[in-house]
């Protein structure tokens, strides 16, 4: 991939069209504006849309700050929730809801006047529009307009600094024999709420950087976490195991700090999930929202990256399931098991898959109009015969992979939950998950090294790369370092006991 491309404003594109229409040769125009011939062809194809677009204003008026920020934060969260449900909202309803939040905060001097409402609308840059019945479907015109805007945005960033982030729900415990129970379940609550988690993935445009996943569970301290000090994901929890404004903003601030330390400025494209709608002020991360109801076409993670992750995750679950069947064991998947398998699956999503998904969404122009297929094949064919004995006749492996496609990742909060999120109240479930299986036995350094030798003995009988031996050596050295550190700490503790 190339680094920065030449950025053309709408005015520049209009001049290009004028010069072509005046009779100039395309090669001369392309050379004059220092753009490749493919870019010129794209501009000419978008001629009508470009000529109907006005130049963006270079500056914006500063918004007047609110005297009651917490009331407006709650109100803005509530407003976005009801609008996403296609519920019409009037000015009177907004004023009544604002009074309700003011009462919850104990603010007696708040006046929901017409003047306040007008300023509130200006501060949050929205107007009351009629809601159309087709609003939930993808609008092709909106998608085309977005593609034009996207190219202008991409001019300002290297591919490595262009990110997409998105959440997905996962029925992490679902074994192949329970697929019918979970199929098409949205899981806003109820019996299956303990069976689900939410994961946030973020990846950059050239596929060189897959950020550490955010893994959101229900319990603050699952029993399987006992004696566990390191995880390959960032683990958070709340009562519904889904994304909230608080968790999203914390994740953004951590990302911003990381980018500031790296002296990088990035842009991150996200959908209009209710949890995303009140982001903090960030110095090194620019947030760009995708148009509503278009993510199925415009969001790279939705174009195959998340699906690829789930294919890999289910493959590992199937392997665990079949191994338990062979040993007459009862298969169980804990939160810790799900974290380890999720890490492996995410790590195995390829750079090619990521690049292809960004390309499919228009982030990268396809050469000669050829689209590469997104690789989805997995080595599960040999397991299909055995798997068919535990799957319902009406279900396939593809059904099993897609069981949580409709799973909610964020949702409508109650007034109490909205109030709590802006009143510094956690409200998280601190109880252990009683359904977790017993914790794994503690392994000492001697047992760990013996296990590593068994792995080495197995691999030596096969034709493997030298890098694998280096990895095993690194693991062996790590075990020695951890053991040495533990021994030193024990000696220090024993010294102070004397």
TrEMBL record:
One of its GO terms (cellular component) is nucleus. Residues 1-50 form the HTH psq-type domain. GO terms for molecular function: DNA binding. Its main location: nucleus. Keywords: DNA-binding, Nucleus. It comes from the Eukaryota. This is Uncharacterized protein. It is found in: Nucleus. It holds the Pfam family HTH_Tnp_Tc5. Residues 59-130 form the HTH CENPB-type domain. Residues 26-46 bind DNA. Gene3D superfamilies: Homeodomain-like.
